[in-house]
Design a protein that fits this description.
heterodimer; A: two-stranded antiparallel sheet; 3% strand; globular; B: Rossmann fold; 2 domains; 14 strands
Chain lengths: 293, 422
């Protein structure tokens, strides 16, 4: 059995799941908001990247420096103009559910908007890396997945260091730990929230670009990855950066290795079963803080 | 006060509607006994909802056929009576299909019903027609059960779903012999809903019958984020044939991943659906070259009338016909032929004429060389054609390759699968 290929593929796909979940876990960890528009924002990033690539034809990985800032601005403005007013209005509510509904509604709007603008056709960016493969020691891996793995590792590592050792990173974490105390220490909490949402969305743009060379783009593509991102976040621990990456890789490996011994339909069942099991045994996840719960 | 008044008004209106429909009903009854100038045919198709584009092309194909029939003098045995199509929107919804069938039969007094796109709509709508004893010609839906319920008034022009799987297996056997490449093992990779499972049931019957062995049965969710595990599994088993049932996004993922991992069976065979979607070429590029797919009609198929009718259709509507449009078009000629022989719109006479159908010439040749229904109302030799994805003048195209007499002239089948870009 070509078991090494199976493992390498599981890790590379899992790293992408982790990268997608990174934004979700960040937004949850800091703002305590479950962002149901995460999948739709991924779709929006893919759409933007696809059309930019289509009209410029540039190397897809160079798109990161163009699309990520654009998505940061979109995320920042979304928080500033849509989420903040709702958060403020429900400041004294113990279980603020309105934001959750807002993000769900936002997802529906985005999906239908892109259906209107781009149509329901499946498209794919046939870039120079699309059909290239890398072979080493008998393992075949598509170049696009290999680059995705590297980008996911670099971005997750860099992002972890950013959160741990920079001033902004400390501000972000302090808001996540206790927004009221952070506010008392002179941190502009609303602004930090907007930045968190912006960064979360920009990270999604990076994930979108790693997918672009080998995955189709369609207004519903967000749904394919959205549920998986939730599972990854719960598995790794809500708010944990290394947890997201490791959780993603675990899911990727289960899917890849599991499918060799059972049908692909059953591996999906197993992934969800693990999701339930984690919620049951250790709801804080692998790396989540127990104090949060 | 106002409330009472409005109830009275509605009541009065209802009574009037009932009276009117009674009068209309009498009028219809009279016209049957005298010479008919217009024959009403009811047609239920999805004109809204997700299948609306498919309903539209079906309507256009029927309109074109009816225009041709009427222009050529209508139904001559009935004094040149003209066919009039009454379209009803099923919305792709079984319940709406039933109520529309009911309405067309009782209110519009149609001579005959035809249409439906989805099998799910065809099943209950044909039941209504059977109850009223009105013939129903079903050109497109392929669910096996439609003609397996002992109905007398249902005539299906389409093939049964399982026939596609049967012909795929026949094709494999023929190719293995023709090219002297022994074929033993088959891998089945299919989306895990009713469609894929239905295909697998048929394959499980026909593949062992042909002396082949199924080495892999792999259902997968069509919204999978990654199909590499499935591809690697197939690669490890190294089957002679890989057969697939897929929607377009997963068909593309499978094709691209097979190319990526250089999986080399003797043939890849698709089962229409995603493989026949125009977006498939866009998503796979050259990776789908030499793949096979099965359908009932292709624009390049070598049958009489095929090219001419498609050309006329293209000039009229701006795009090419598809297999469903061809069946819809042919159905109108089959109906006109039955009306001609029945010489009346009496349902029983029409039913008898339809059951005695035996057309071996005319425009229906573009679909089948012979239109005959068996005692269940099923078209006996609904033809299927296998095409191969090939690069013609630098562009990927579906090229009809089998059966040989209907293949595109000058194109040889490439067998076994030579690999991407070979």
């Amino acid at each position: 059995m070509d078991s090494l290929s199976v493992i390498v593929n599981g890790i590379s796909m899992g790293a992408i799941y982790g990268l997608i979940a990174l934004g979700l876990t960040l937004i949850f960890g800091i703002m305590k908001i479950i962002n149901f528009a995460h999948g739709a924002l991924l779709m929006l990033s893919m759409m933007c990247s696809y059309w930019t690539w289509k009209y410029t034809g540039i190397n897809p990985y160079l798109l990161i420096i163009m699309i990520a800032p654009v998505m940061f601005v979109i995320g920042y403005s979304t928080e500033r103009f849509f989420i903040k007013p709702v958060l403020d209005a429900q400041k004294d509510v113990r279980e603020p559910i309105a934001v959750l509904l807002l993000t769900a509604a936002f997802a529906i709007v985005l999906e239908n908007l892109s259906l209107m603008l781009f149509g329901a056709d499946y498209v794919m960016a046939k870039t120079t890396v699309t059909d290239a493969t890398i072979a080493f020691g008998g393992v075949t891996l598509s170049a696009a997945r290999f680059y995705a793995l590297i980008i996911a590792l670099v971005i997750s590592g860099g992002f972890y260091l950013f959160l741990q050792y920079t001033e902004l990173g400390r501000k972000l974490r302090s808001c996540g730990q206790d927004r009221n105390t952070a506010s008392l220490m002179g941190i502009d909490v609303p602004k930090t929230f907007a930045i968190a949402f912006g960064i979360g969305t920009a990270l999604l743009a990076v994930a979108a670009i790693t997918l672009l060379p080998f995955y189709y783009v369609h207004p519903t593509v967000g749904n394919v990855f959205m549920t998986k991102a939730f599972i990854v976040v719960v598995l790794g621990g809500l708010g944990s950066v290394p947890g997201a990456l490791l959780g993603g890789i675990i899911i990727g490996l289960i899917e890849s290795i599991g499918a060799q011994y059972m049908t692909a339909t059953l591996t999906t069942v197993i992934v969800y079963a693990i999701f339930l099991l984690i919620l049951f045994i250790k709801p804080s996840g692998l790396f989540g803080s127990r104090l949060e719960w | 006060m106002i409330k009472i008044r409005s109830t009275k008004v509605i009541g009065l209106l209802l009574v009037m509607v009932m009276l009117l429909s009674l009068v209309a009903g009498c009028g219809g009854g009279d016209s049957k006994t005298t010479t008919v100038e217009e024959i009403k045919i009811g047609n239920i198709i999805p004109l809204s909802g997700s299948a609306a584009p498919l309903g539209k092309i079906g309507q256009e194909a029927r309109d074109m056929a009816v225009e041709e029939i009427n222009a050529a003098g209508g139904i001559k045995s009935m004094g040149g009576a003209q066919i009039k199509m009454l379209y009803a929107d099923s919305k792709g919804d079984p319940a709406t299909g039933v109520s529309e069938a009911e309405r067309l039969i009782t209110l519009e007094e149609v001579a005959l019903l035809t249409g439906t796109y989805q099998s799910g709509v065809a099943m209950p709508s044909t039941e209504v027609a059977e109850r009223y004893g009105i013939p129903f010609v079903v050109p497109v839906p392929s669910e096996d059960a439609i003609t397996e319920r002992g109905f007398k008034n249902v005539f299906r022009l389409a093939e049964k779903t399982s026939w596609r799987n049967r012909d795929q297996v026949t094709f494999i056997k023929e190719m293995a012999e023709k090219f002297n490449t022994p074929v033993k093992t088959v891998a089945l990779i299919y989306e895990n809903t009713a469609w894929g499972q239905g295909a697998v049931r048929a394959w499980e019957k026909y593949i062992p019958e042909a002396g082949l062995e199924i080495v892999l049965k792999e259902p997968y969710p069509s919204n999978s984020s990654d199909l590499t595990p499935v591809v690697l599994k197939a690669k490890n088993l190294n089957p002679d044939i890989i057969m697939m049932v897929s929607y377009v996004s997963d068909a593309a993922l499978l094709t691209n991943t097979f190319a990526e991992h250089k999986v080399m069976p003797k043939a890849y065979i698709g089962t229409s659906g995603g493989f026949a979607d125009p977006a498939y070429f866009e998503l796979t590029g050259d990776n789908c070259e030499y793949y096979f797919d099965i359908a009932t009609w292709e624009p390049d198929v070598n049958r009489p009338f095929s090219a001419d009718v498609n050309k006329a259709f293209k000039e009229k509507y701006g795009y090419s016909m598809n297999a469903e449009a061809v069946k819809a078009y042919t159905a109108m000629y089959v109906i006109a032929d039955a009306l001609e022989r029945a010489g009346s719109t009496d349902p029983e006479a029409l039913r008898k004429a339809l059951s005695e159908t035996n057309i071996t010439e005319g425009p229906s040749q573009m679909y089948a060389s012979e239109v005959v229904f068996d005692e269940t109302g099923q078209m006996v030799n609904a033809p299927l054609v296998i095409s191969q994805m090939r690069k013609v003048d630098g562009k990927m195209e579906r090229v009809s390759v089998w059966p040989e007499e209907e293949a595109r002239p000058g194109m040889e089948i490439v067998w076994p699968y030579p690999g991407v870009g070979k």
